[in-house]
Amino acid sequence: MIDFRYHLVSIVAIFLALTVGIVLGSTVLEPTFFKSAEEMTASLRQANEKYLTQISQLQTREEGGDSLVTTHLPELVRGQLAGERVVLVEAPGASAALRDPIEKLVTSAGASYAGRVSLTEKFVEAEQASVVDGLATNLAPAGTAFPDGATPYDKAAAMLAGAIVTNDRAQAGRANPAATGVLEAFQAGDFLTLNGDPEQRATMAIVLAPAQPYEGEDADRQTNALVSVAAGLDSGALGTVLAGTVTASANGGVIAALHDTGGVASAVSTVDTVDFAAGRVVVVYALREQLAGRSGSYGIGSGATAFEPTVTAPSQTPTPAASRG
């Protein structure tokens, strides 16, 4: 039988062990632990300061490069689009801050700026798809046959393209008699707004992507609607460029969606650096490349094949959009 003295000795032994552990921790282990923690903190602080310095230097270099390109932009693009007429089509959610720079870019390149067509949020709303379909069908000239499987936005894009672009330079700057009332009807339905004279048809189009990818369960359908718009414009013009920021070429972005389409991707050029002066210069070079019958994906996103196209003299003969790729 275990007596009281045994219990007492056991309890004393436990408290003695605890006391020894506390003494060792405070006299031997604690200094070692704190020294190691202090060394690690100092190392992390030093690395953090190094990275902050590098980031600051990169930002300064980027701002300097952007300022330099902005200053010399007219020289970089002068004459590249001489004789062409360019229209800007804005997707819902596109950055309004890019409007003026793009207009200046186009005119600096020697082209005429036809104006702007801004698609509204209503244009891509799910509950409006049937309305868009009916509107496009009713506006189509007699005898028009849309391809089998054409979506409401394929049809709408075809109607809008007929109203604002042409692949015949002789028709540039003139309204299309067969598209009379198209823009007015879409505007009356609150599907778009107009600025300038986009009904005086352009030979080339720039489609400005949303600043951020669409979100929600309807995001894919909305994104594909914009791909349809770019494809429709390209089929009726001498060239089309879908331009945006790197977010547009990321997963869920419009540029990324276009890259996944195959046929459209081989015809419509893309640029994902339009928020930089150098990227806007690339937009001009991409449009000029379209005139030579080629297309490409440019920028810094995962789908880009190069930052810019190879600079070549533009073709003097209009090239049908269908022959590009």
Give me the secondary-structure topology.
Blueprint: H1 4-77, E1 85-90, H2 99-108, E2 112-119, H3 129-139, H4 152-164, H5 182-188, E3 192-196, E4 204-208, H6 219-236, E5 239-243, H7 254-259, E6 269-271, H8 277-291, E7 297-298
Parallel strand pairs: 1-2, 1-4, 4-5, 5-6, 6-7
Antiparallel strand pairs: 2-3
Helix pairs in contact: 1-8, 3-4, 4-6
Shape: globular
Order of strands across the widest beta sheet?
Answer: 3-2-1-4-5-6-7
Number of helices: 8
Question: What's the β-strand tally?
Answer: 7
Can you give a write-up of this model?
Strand 5, helix 7 (254-259) and strand 6 form a beta-alpha-beta unit. This protein has two domains: 1-77; 81-323, no CATH class. The chain is built from eight helices and seven strands, in the order αβαβαααββαβαβαβ. It is of the alpha/beta class and 325 residues long. Residues 314-323 have low confidence and may be disordered.
Question: Briefly, what is this?
Answer:
With 325 residues, the chain is α/β, with parallel strands linked by helices.
List keywords for this structure.
325 residues, 2 domains, 7 strands, 47% helix
